[in-house]
Amino acid sequence: MRLPPFEYQAPSTLDEALKIKRGQGAAAQILAGGTDLIVNFKHRLFSPATVISLNNIAELKRIEVTHDALVLGAGASLAEVASHPAVNEHFPILVKAIDSIGALGIQRFRGTIGGNLLLQPRCIFYNQSHYWRMSKGLCHRTGGKDCLALEGSDSCHSICSGDTVPTLLALSAQLALAGGGGKRVAPLAEFFTGRGESPWNIMPEEILTEIRIPLPWAPISWSYQRLALRPAVDFPLVNAAAAAIVEKGKLEHFRLVIAALGPAPMVLREVEARLKGAAPTREALDLAQDAAVRVAEGVVVANASASKEYRIQMAGALARRATGEALGLA
Length: 330
Fold this sequence. Notes:
By secondary structure, the protein is an alpha+beta fold. It is about 30% helix and about 20% strand.
């Protein structure tokens, strides 16, 4: 399959990239590592007028520790993030999530942390060739008015599949974005819309520049769980991340996130509220599993390479495993 025609721009500064993006808006696509985007171009899922490569912008690749946060440039490669001493010291859960992504020589050396976070939601009715899609009719993401996975739905149910997404959300990450109106910082928890056709709260002229992870005030115990048919090749069917801080035998902080089920990751707030201030017990495992299954039942549709029923049950199983490992109950 061939790429569609487009104008290629490779600015060397963020200001130059923003100027191009401001002038073109949604007609310009941002290219970071390109491991997913190039395939989407070949499938004619996108046919942009302009492609803006961020590969020459050094300021987007820096990784540093400030007095209160680990700052990851959105253009830093997954391999650079996973091998950085500060990431390994403070957030080994992120290293584990990155180690589960694709093939070492392609996705991890070419792919970027920002690109994985902004991975386009996937659906077996959408991530196909143009010829295949035309035989099925149009969906919400291709200009139609229906969802091919859930008849009568008024929005797209494609799947947020990035492996770093639940991990960063469990770590309370924030995003720095730059655009025509200047720079802004937004919690990752508020970044996802829950609609596959427009999955992120980002303006057409904005570019993701940084991911900021607050440094914990105490040691974090953690877990990242992932289920895929072929771990080194396939996107997750479901994944889960948990982060906990236990002090004097009580949970001072706990967050459990499940993802790869619908257009947005889901923080299980009910579990968080019930466990805060309590001593870790095995009842927490049942609570996490039951909550995950209930949430999954409300979002999962038949648009992946495994059945809806299987993915719902596995959401509960992975939430249970993540909770058990993070709380030392596994």
